[in-house]
Amino acid sequence: MIGFRQTFPVIKSPYGTRCFTDGFFFSIDRRWTRFKHRESRWECEIPVIKRSHGRSSPIWGSTNSTVGLSLFQSLVRSDALPIQQVRTTCLNHSNTCLNLSIRYTYCHKFSVSSSVLMGTNGIFTEDHLRHIESLATFPSGAGKISHLRATNLGECLSSEEHDLVFPTPEFSDKALVPSTEKYLEMYRRSVRDPAGFWGDIAAEFYWKEKWDCEKVCSENLDVRKGTVEIEWFKGGKTNICFNALDRIVDNGDGDKVALYWEGNVPGLDDKLTYKELLDKVCQLSNYLKDVGVKKGDAVVIYLPMLAELPISMLACARIGAVHSVVFAGFSAESLAQRIIDCKPNVVITCNAVLRGDKPILLKNIVDQAITQSADNGVSVDLCLTYENQSAMKKEATKWQADRDIWWQDVVPKYPNTCLVEWVDAEDPLFLLYTSGSTGKPKGVLHTTGGYMVYAATTFKYAFDYKPSDVYWCTADCGWITGHSYVSYGPLLNGASVVIFEGAPNYPDSGRCWDIVDKYNVTIFYTAPTLVRSLMREKNEYVTRYSRKSLRVLGSVGEPINPSAWRWFYNIVGDSRCPISDTWWQTETGGFMITPLPGSWPQKPGSATFPFFGVQPVIVDEKGNEIEGECSGYLCVKNSWPGAFRTLYGDHDRYETTYFKPFPGYYFSGDGCSRDGDGYYWLTGRVDDVINVSGHRIGTAEVESALVLHPQCVEAAVVGVEHEVKGQGIYAFVTLVDGVTYSEELRKSLILSVRNQIGAFAAPDKIHWAPGLPKTRSGKIMRRILRKIASRQLEELGDISTLADPAVVDQLIALSDC
Ligand code: 6R9
């Protein structure tokens, strides 16, 4: 149990502070610690009370002004309560002031601490005394908490020393999972009895027909035993749109706001209640049915963050059509590639969108993509186009009358009720293309029932959702986060969701907090890259807004580095809001490893523990499970309801990529370590995928785009550390014989990638490589390229196996060209 915690200010303590001419004394629990400023340094005296006679003899230590950080540690004992350790950390000091954090640890369960800021004239400010008692056993079973470098919610994480943040009793008492015990109880049941655990949750949704109770889940994850197959709630008939809208309206929440839409330009906004959203979805469903879209047909959606994007997804789901949303930052080539793969009857788009001040002509991109896919034998008969008036007028839009239809001309004319198509739990819901380690993106296929139950449940627990919350996720519906945690997860819970069309730094870096205050957002879910980019600006952009509505913060897309975590926690959340650092993937459909706010202490940078029903394992190179504290490859032992069921049209690739590397397990492609307390720390991709601003990009995709340039014969792309984006794209290019490298060529190579994939995949650095380091069998040694790219030249390792070791020196010499 995480037990008794209490805070009270030092100043109110009867054993407070005394000031003397030669320094001052500071007391915690009747033990007087004396600080003196002498000869440009601070000295500190900690009394030791001898057990037998209760007499004290001081221990002395001093700050060292050149080092700037001093640690006084001693073991002291008293009659009253045995003190195991006194730890004083100098947070900051100068000739005129000293800022210390002092902690007395009585036993491993109980400590008292405080931080004090003292000047030569006396004490300026005092922090709080803190009692943190914990009897917690970590969910991992790692044992008792071994150290208490802890702070509580509500208090500033003042230094690297604090590596645990405890929820306050006030937060935990109201949380859905209020204690570690409760989590453990639920987690244990979820893995011992998945059918019972998930069956009970699924029963809270509407099912036209119940699933086969004997077989809630059937799975084979082991390629050695046959085809990989996952099924949940098979035989059950339901509809996710019905559960996300009709069920909420039927429960009496029709007038509750479902979507708050905030436009790119401040002041332009809109909102839709659940009832209004349902009406709009039904109109579009009726239209789609009318133009011949049937159950199982694919519909491609290429829209920015307008309400019409979730409306389109829900309308497809209502009639059993399979939506495939393509992020509206992808180029015409990428869109065409996806259209060719899934062959939709209809593409839904809009004429343009404003991103900051810049209009992006989406319809033109769709036109090009449809032409390209027609050249490849896939024709699209209908392009339903929404007029996004704030960005572009109808009249200015290029039009092909026999194929294009204005949304506003047809959809509003249809009835606002539409019968639901009841589908099997295992019928496909959507396809979402994601990058892998080849040039061809993978069509990740999710089905209906398991995904619905999983998206809703993970949303509810990981954000400790309450009906009064206003929730904002900054992700675009073009990515999985926008599917599970802008649209389906929150709507299935009847939440009020903010969706934002614009850029987070437009018109300035305070926009996010302006939106938070405008809608009284309580749960704010974003990506580390956004946190890092805002962190570079003045804190004033944050602090000028109140943000008092915020309750829970969330992070996704890549590991959040502890310093970004601290800034997010201290500055954005005013040290008041837990952060749910949610690890998951397009393939997993929902959260896999995530904090549950209120149930256990958090560590900055760790995704903490597995969600219900998820059994993560860390394996070594050979696929052996490693126990306890370790690092390795992150795999999952069993299926979970939100798992993807196949890669569209390529079940072999599904098995090869995810289930063959470590037979018997689902392989995530991520590296991971687990610390002594059992906390999971994701360390990034271990395959040829880079994660740029939380967007997955295959190195092979960028390479294919580069070699399409007529002057480039070969390209090798690696990821490098990037201060804001997490990873940046570093491309080595070999040019056609006789072509000289120039600034102009550099720009045109980058343009080639923008055109082939999209602006977000543009390389940060092009490195001219007359030759690439290859083995004698012709394999590019990316390990060496990574070291050259990150300038770790002393770590190049053995290069003797290269066909031509001289290329390494040549590449190093060309680094700054
Ligand atoms: C949801 C999403 C998945 C990859 C995944 C991992 C990285 C996502 C993370 C994280 C560390 C987190 N990732 N969340 N790494 N901590 N909280 O982003 O899906 O676009 O498929 O990317 O993103 O590397 O494998 P997707």
Automatic annotation (TrEMBL):
Arranged from A to Z, the UniProt key words for this protein are:
ATP-binding, Ligase, Nucleotide-binding
Which stretches make up the AMP-binding enzyme C-terminal domain?
Answer: 701-779
Query: Record's PROSITE patterns?
Result: AMP_BINDING
Q: Which InterPro entries match?
A: Ac_CoA_lig (IPR011904), ACAS_N (IPR032387), AMP-bd_C (IPR025110), AMP-bd_C_sf (IPR045851), AMP-binding_CS (IPR020845), AMP-dep_synth/lig_dom (IPR000873), ANL_N_sf (IPR042099)
Q: Name one GO molecular function term.
A: trans-cinnamate-CoA ligase activity
Q: Name one Pfam family in it.
A: ACAS_N
BP terms from Gene Ontology: acetyl-CoA biosynthetic process; acetyl-CoA biosynthetic process from acetate; phenylpropanoid metabolic process
- Chain ranges of the AMP-dependent synthetase/ligase domain: 253-639
EC numbers listed for it are: 6.2.1.1
Which residues are in the Acetyl-coenzyme A synthetase N-terminal domain?
A: 183-244
Give the catalytic activity: (E)-4-coumarate + ATP + CoA = (E)-4-coumaroyl-CoA + AMP + diphosphate; acetate + ATP + CoA = acetyl-CoA + AMP + diphosphate
Which family does the similarity line name? Answer: Belongs to the ATP-dependent AMP-binding enzyme family.
> Which NCBIfam families does the UniProt entry name for this protein?
Ac_CoA_lig_AcsA, PRK00174.1
Q: What is this protein called?
A: Acetyl-coenzyme A synthetase
Q: Which organism is it from?
A: Zostera marina (Eelgrass)
What lineage is this protein's organism placed in? Eukaryota, Viridiplantae, Streptophyta, Embryophyta, Tracheophyta
